[in-house]
Design a protein that fits this description.
Layout lengths: L1 E4 L4 H12 L5 E4 L7 H11 L12 H6 L11 H10 L8 E3 L5 E3 L3 H9 L3
Parallel strand pairs: 1-2
Antiparallel strand pairs: 1-3, 3-4
Helix pairs in contact: 1-5
Organism: Allokutzneria oryzae
Family: Belongs to the ArsC family.
Keywords: Oxidoreductase
Length: about 120
């Protein structure tokens, strides 16, 4: 199990606390310092069953700078979204947990963290 976090994020810290309380075996990825590649992001999106715009933090200042809220959310513009997230990892929603069964979740709630813990390979 891997969890992508920003240590300044309270939801990330809460997720880590819950994982620790449950004795989970996990790896932390500080995704702002170690951003995902386009290939990694595509793989995680596939595991999440989401599109890049679904995990984009539109309230970030860089989102406004890029004008991302006006971008089309379709297959033609999907590569542009991926490129923006890779170049600006702060735009990626967090925390993201990749579970042992091949799924992933945006673990912003205790329930989502527990679901990742319950995933079986």
């Amino acid at each position: 199990m891997e969890i992508w976090i920003n240590p300044a994020c309270s939801k990330c810290r809460s997720a880590l606390t819950l994982l620790d309380a449950e004795g989970a075996d996990y790896t932390v990825r500080y995704y702002l310092q170690d951003p995902p590649t386009a290939t990694e992001l595509e793989a995680v999106l596939g595991r999440l069953g989401l599109e890049p715009w679904d995990i984009t933090r539109l309230g970030e200042p860089v989102a406004a700078e890029l004008g991302i809220t006006s971008w089309a959310r379709d297959a033609t513009n999907r590569p542009q979204w991926i490129e923006a997230l890779v170049a600006n990892p702060k735009l990626i929603q967090r925390p993201i947990i990749t579970a042992e069964d091949g799924t992933a979740s945006v673990a912003r709630t205790p329930e989502a963290v527990r679901a990742a813990l319950d995933a079986k390979p």
